[in-house]
Sporulation integral membrane protein YlbJ
Amino acid sequence: MKQLLKTFIFAAVTIFFAFTLIKFPNDALEASIRGIDMWWEVVFPSLLPFFITAELLLSFGVVKFLGVVFEPIMRPLFNVPGVGSFAWIMGMVSGYPTGAKISVRLREQNQVTQVEAERLVAFTNASSPLFIFGAISIGFFHDPKLGVLLAICHYLGNAITGICMRFYGRKKDKPYQMNNGKFSIKRAFLAMHETRVNDKRPIGEILGDAVLNSIKTLVMVGGFIILFSVLNKMLFLIGLTPFIATIFQSVFHLIYLPIELALPFISGLFEITLGANLISKENIDPFLASVIVVSFILGFNGFSIQAQVASIISKSNIQFYPYFLARILHGIIASLLTIILYKPLYLDRKNINIEDMPVSNPATENNWINILLTLEQIGPLITILSFGIAFIILYRRQKKYK
């Protein structure tokens, strides 16, 4: 009976979505183009180098080296092996869903257990500095000082979330040895060498696999970006998003947040970019309220990102619900940190000559803008060349095995 109910619900939702596309074809097309532009120009070219690099570092044993070095730090803090440091760092630098992809690869190589992989996925998927500083702070709010506050609250909140998740699934943990907590570069090098030697693939095949695996993942990411861009637009047109927003208005009123932010908040739950853009246009007073909501949706990741993560981990035995619970926790922690740090990191800095501060001088601001403009100009070219390289690799392999 339960399975029959699921079948009915899935079929009904899909049919309803199909009818909305038929009723609003022009709006669906515009939303689809918006999503594919974002993926084509920015997401694909910005994430591809990190994905390929991560695959190569895993194959050459560098991640194993980092695992031995950082074991004394990662175990006490997050209750995960030292190799988790690689997923955490790469997740912060390149943005979601890099942390999920690396966590799955570590699980496939048996470098982490199932419960350790679930802890990793829970806190290694963060927004990239490019998105926080370039897109949100400068692009939407036109205020580079805001980027420092959002970034610190986001990454510090992510670390606190990881510490909280260390208690998840403790009954499933297996005994491990910390090698008496001794730091040993020699042991780390030996572990790296052993990992590289055990990988019998030639260098050409390793490079080819890294490119192909990265492109396959990014194609999937692009599909979800387009899907949720259209879905969010359709839900707004049929009045479902405004209806849900009216419910959240009561919640916002109880926690002393302006009810005008309810609709942008709902949009942000589906897609961070659209939600942050709508919040920036509201001109809410006090401004702190807008920053709190943006911090929450950054920590929550949005259903679009969560769907990407769910798709990536679906081929493993990693469960989704710890990640989802951690997203709610991260959103709450980041919002609380925003309230605490708003005055020292944002208001008080208005009385300081920001040109003297390296994190906020005009040169730094221009760097973020230039990166975004460069990606928009050469991003499509990188995407086309990448697909061309992938086609050549697949063609040569198919020809070789005939």
Confidence is low (pLDDT under 50) at residues 354-360. The two ends are 48 Å apart (CA to CA). Residues 23-400 form one domain. The chain has one domain: 23-400.
